[in-house]
Amino acid sequence: MLSIFLFLGFITQTVGMVYTTASNSAFITGTYIVILPFIQYFIIKKIPSIANVAGIILVSIGLVLLTGMHSFNFNFGDMLTFICALAFAFHILYVDIFTSEENSDFNALLFGQFIGMLILCTLSTLIFENGENFKFTPKILSSASLIINSVMSTFVGIYLINKYQKYTTPVKAGLIYSMEQVFAVIFSIILLNELFSSVQIAGAIFIFSGFMVSEIFKKGR
Q1: How many CB atoms are closer than 10 A to CB 158?
Q2: Who contacts 221 (Cβ-Cβ below 8 Å, separation ≥6)?
Q3: Which CA distances in Å does 181 have to 10, 91, 108, 131?
Protein backbone atom coordinates (compact mmCIF):
# COMPACT_ATOMS: atom_id res chain seq x y z
CA MET A 1 0.00 0.00 0.00
CA LEU A 2 2.80 2.43 0.92
CA SER A 3 4.67 1.72 -2.32
CA ILE A 4 1.49 2.36 -4.35
CA PHE A 5 0.98 5.75 -2.70
CA LEU A 6 4.64 6.65 -3.26
CA PHE A 7 4.48 5.54 -6.89
CA LEU A 8 1.29 7.53 -7.53
CA GLY A 9 2.85 10.59 -5.92
CA PHE A 10 6.05 10.43 -7.98
CA ILE A 11 4.52 9.54 -11.35
CA THR A 12 1.64 12.04 -11.26
CA GLN A 13 3.97 14.85 -10.17
CA THR A 14 6.54 13.98 -12.86
CA VAL A 15 4.03 13.64 -15.71
CA GLY A 16 2.03 16.62 -14.43
CA MET A 17 5.13 18.81 -14.78
CA VAL A 18 4.94 18.31 -18.55
CA TYR A 19 1.55 20.05 -18.68
CA THR A 20 1.80 22.69 -15.96
CA THR A 21 4.26 25.23 -14.58
CA ALA A 22 6.81 24.68 -11.83
CA SER A 23 5.03 27.17 -9.57
CA ASN A 24 1.68 25.43 -10.07
CA SER A 25 3.30 22.06 -9.34
CA ALA A 26 4.96 23.34 -6.17
CA PHE A 27 1.78 24.95 -4.91
CA ILE A 28 -0.56 22.02 -5.66
CA THR A 29 1.87 19.45 -4.25
CA GLY A 30 2.03 21.53 -1.07
CA THR A 31 -1.74 21.32 -0.64
CA TYR A 32 -1.29 17.85 0.90
CA ILE A 33 -0.90 19.73 4.19
CA VAL A 34 -4.49 21.01 3.84
CA ILE A 35 -5.83 17.60 2.73
CA LEU A 36 -4.09 15.64 5.50
CA PRO A 37 -6.24 16.73 8.50
CA PHE A 38 -9.43 15.73 6.66
CA ILE A 39 -8.30 12.22 5.72
CA GLN A 40 -6.83 11.84 9.22
CA TYR A 41 -10.26 12.59 10.68
CA PHE A 42 -12.16 10.27 8.33
CA ILE A 43 -9.73 7.34 8.65
CA ILE A 44 -8.51 7.44 12.26
CA LYS A 45 -11.08 9.87 13.72
CA LYS A 46 -8.40 12.21 15.06
CA ILE A 47 -9.07 15.95 15.08
CA PRO A 48 -6.05 18.25 14.60
CA SER A 49 -5.29 20.69 17.42
CA ILE A 50 -5.90 24.44 17.19
CA ALA A 51 -2.13 24.92 16.87
CA ASN A 52 -2.07 22.49 13.93
CA VAL A 53 -4.90 24.36 12.19
CA ALA A 54 -3.14 27.71 12.74
CA GLY A 55 0.05 26.21 11.33
CA ILE A 56 -1.80 24.88 8.26
CA ILE A 57 -3.30 28.33 7.56
CA LEU A 58 0.11 30.02 7.81
CA VAL A 59 1.76 27.40 5.59
CA SER A 60 -1.02 27.73 2.98
CA ILE A 61 -0.55 31.51 2.85
CA GLY A 62 3.19 30.96 2.56
CA LEU A 63 2.74 28.54 -0.36
CA VAL A 64 0.65 31.10 -2.26
CA LEU A 65 3.28 33.81 -1.76
CA LEU A 66 6.30 31.57 -2.39
CA THR A 67 5.00 30.01 -5.62
CA GLY A 68 3.38 33.16 -6.98
CA MET A 69 -0.04 31.49 -7.21
CA HIS A 70 -2.10 34.68 -7.20
CA SER A 71 -4.24 33.54 -10.15
CA PHE A 72 -5.09 29.98 -11.04
CA ASN A 73 -6.37 28.17 -14.14
CA PHE A 74 -6.82 24.45 -13.54
CA ASN A 75 -5.51 22.22 -16.37
CA PHE A 76 -4.68 18.54 -16.95
CA GLY A 77 -1.22 18.86 -15.41
CA ASP A 78 -2.71 20.51 -12.34
CA MET A 79 -5.22 17.64 -11.99
CA LEU A 80 -2.39 15.07 -12.08
CA THR A 81 -0.43 17.08 -9.51
CA PHE A 82 -3.48 17.23 -7.24
CA ILE A 83 -3.58 13.41 -7.35
CA CYS A 84 0.09 13.59 -6.31
CA ALA A 85 -0.86 15.72 -3.28
CA LEU A 86 -3.58 13.21 -2.34
CA ALA A 87 -1.15 10.31 -2.67
CA PHE A 88 1.47 11.95 -0.43
CA ALA A 89 -1.19 12.84 2.17
CA PHE A 90 -2.35 9.20 2.31
CA HIS A 91 1.28 8.02 2.43
CA ILE A 92 2.04 10.23 5.45
CA LEU A 93 -1.07 9.00 7.28
CA TYR A 94 -0.50 5.30 6.60
CA VAL A 95 3.19 5.50 7.51
CA ASP A 96 1.98 6.74 10.90
CA ILE A 97 -0.58 3.91 11.15
CA PHE A 98 1.77 1.09 10.10
CA THR A 99 4.88 2.21 12.01
CA SER A 100 2.84 2.70 15.20
CA GLU A 101 1.65 -0.91 15.22
CA GLU A 102 3.14 -2.94 18.07
CA ASN A 103 4.65 -5.67 15.88
CA SER A 104 5.55 -3.53 12.88
CA ASP A 105 8.74 -4.57 11.05
CA PHE A 106 10.70 -1.45 10.12
CA ASN A 107 12.91 -3.17 7.54
CA ALA A 108 9.93 -4.84 5.87
CA LEU A 109 8.09 -1.52 5.63
CA LEU A 110 11.12 0.36 4.32
CA PHE A 111 12.43 -2.10 1.75
CA GLY A 112 8.93 -3.28 0.84
CA GLN A 113 8.20 0.25 -0.36
CA PHE A 114 11.34 0.32 -2.52
CA ILE A 115 10.75 -3.13 -4.00
CA GLY A 116 7.15 -2.16 -4.79
CA MET A 117 8.33 1.13 -6.32
CA LEU A 118 10.94 -0.71 -8.41
CA ILE A 119 8.30 -3.05 -9.85
CA LEU A 120 5.70 -0.33 -10.49
CA CYS A 121 8.20 2.14 -12.00
CA THR A 122 9.71 -0.53 -14.25
CA LEU A 123 6.27 -1.52 -15.53
CA SER A 124 5.28 2.12 -16.15
CA THR A 125 8.54 2.73 -18.03
CA LEU A 126 7.94 -0.29 -20.26
CA ILE A 127 4.38 0.83 -20.94
CA PHE A 128 4.90 4.56 -21.53
CA GLU A 129 8.42 4.81 -22.95
CA ASN A 130 8.18 1.92 -25.46
CA GLY A 131 11.91 1.35 -25.08
CA GLU A 132 12.73 4.59 -26.93
CA ASN A 133 14.25 6.53 -24.04
CA PHE A 134 16.05 3.73 -22.19
CA LYS A 135 19.51 4.93 -23.23
CA PHE A 136 21.48 6.64 -20.45
CA THR A 137 24.77 8.31 -21.32
CA PRO A 138 26.81 8.70 -18.11
CA LYS A 139 28.03 12.24 -17.49
CA ILE A 140 29.43 13.73 -14.31
CA LEU A 141 26.52 16.11 -13.71
CA SER A 142 23.74 13.66 -14.63
CA SER A 143 25.36 10.83 -12.64
CA ALA A 144 25.78 13.08 -9.59
CA SER A 145 22.15 14.20 -9.92
CA LEU A 146 21.01 10.57 -10.14
CA ILE A 147 22.98 9.57 -7.04
CA ILE A 148 21.83 12.57 -4.98
CA ASN A 149 18.18 12.11 -5.95
CA SER A 150 18.08 8.35 -5.48
CA VAL A 151 20.21 8.08 -2.32
CA MET A 152 19.71 11.33 -0.37
CA SER A 153 16.37 12.67 -1.60
CA THR A 154 14.64 9.29 -1.82
CA PHE A 155 16.25 6.51 0.23
CA VAL A 156 17.58 8.55 3.17
CA GLY A 157 14.45 10.72 3.23
CA ILE A 158 12.06 7.77 3.26
CA TYR A 159 14.28 5.92 5.77
CA LEU A 160 14.00 8.85 8.21
CA ILE A 161 10.25 9.19 7.61
CA ASN A 162 9.62 5.52 8.39
CA LYS A 163 12.01 5.52 11.35
CA TYR A 164 10.90 8.64 13.19
CA GLN A 165 7.48 9.83 12.02
CA LYS A 166 5.77 7.59 14.60
CA TYR A 167 7.08 9.89 17.36
CA THR A 168 4.92 12.81 16.13
CA THR A 169 1.45 13.25 14.65
CA PRO A 170 0.67 12.99 10.91
CA VAL A 171 -0.35 16.67 10.70
CA LYS A 172 2.81 17.83 12.49
CA ALA A 173 4.86 15.61 10.21
CA GLY A 174 3.15 17.14 7.17
CA LEU A 175 3.92 20.64 8.44
CA ILE A 176 7.57 19.69 8.92
CA TYR A 177 7.73 18.24 5.38
CA SER A 178 6.35 21.55 4.04
CA MET A 179 9.71 23.07 5.02
CA GLU A 180 10.94 21.48 1.77
CA GLN A 181 9.80 24.60 -0.08
CA VAL A 182 11.72 26.85 2.31
CA PHE A 183 14.92 24.84 1.91
CA ALA A 184 14.42 24.91 -1.87
CA VAL A 185 14.47 28.72 -1.72
CA ILE A 186 17.57 28.76 0.49
CA PHE A 187 19.55 26.29 -1.66
CA SER A 188 18.45 28.01 -4.88
CA ILE A 189 19.98 31.23 -3.57
CA ILE A 190 23.18 29.54 -2.32
CA LEU A 191 23.84 27.05 -5.14
CA LEU A 192 22.17 28.62 -8.18
CA ASN A 193 22.55 32.32 -7.31
CA GLU A 194 18.84 32.80 -7.91
CA LEU A 195 17.24 36.00 -6.71
CA PHE A 196 13.90 35.86 -4.95
CA SER A 197 11.44 38.69 -4.51
CA SER A 198 10.46 40.06 -1.13
CA VAL A 199 7.04 38.40 -1.60
CA GLN A 200 8.63 34.96 -2.03
CA ILE A 201 10.87 35.49 0.99
CA ALA A 202 7.77 36.51 2.97
CA GLY A 203 6.15 33.25 1.81
CA ALA A 204 9.10 31.26 3.14
CA ILE A 205 8.79 33.08 6.47
CA PHE A 206 5.07 32.24 6.63
CA ILE A 207 5.79 28.54 6.02
CA PHE A 208 8.51 28.50 8.69
CA SER A 209 6.19 30.36 11.09
CA GLY A 210 3.41 27.84 10.47
CA PHE A 211 5.79 25.00 11.34
CA MET A 212 6.97 26.77 14.49
CA VAL A 213 3.44 27.64 15.68
CA SER A 214 2.33 24.02 15.33
CA GLU A 215 5.47 22.62 16.91
CA ILE A 216 6.03 24.84 19.96
CA PHE A 217 2.53 26.07 20.83
CA LYS A 218 1.32 24.73 24.19
CA LYS A 219 -2.24 24.98 25.46
CA GLY A 220 -2.56 27.67 28.10
CA ARG A 221 0.61 29.54 27.06
Answers
A1: 19
A2: none
A3: 17, 19, 30, 34
What residue ranges do the domains of the chain occupy?
2-216
213, 55 in Cβ contact below 8 A?
yes
Work out the number of other CB atoms within 10 angstroms of the CB of residue 206. 21
The whole-model pTM stands at 0.79
CB–CB of 25/13 below 8 Å?
A: yes
Number of alpha carbons in the 13 Å side-chain half-sphere of residue 159: 7
Q: What are phi and psi of 32, to 5 degrees?
A: -60, -25
Please name the amino acid found at residue 166: K
With bands split at pLDDT 50, 70 and 90, how would you rate the model's confidence at 9? very high
- CA–CA separation, 203 vs 215, rounded Å? 18
Report helix angle 170-177 to 32-44, nearest 10. Answer: 170
Other CB atoms within 10 A of residue 14 CB: 14
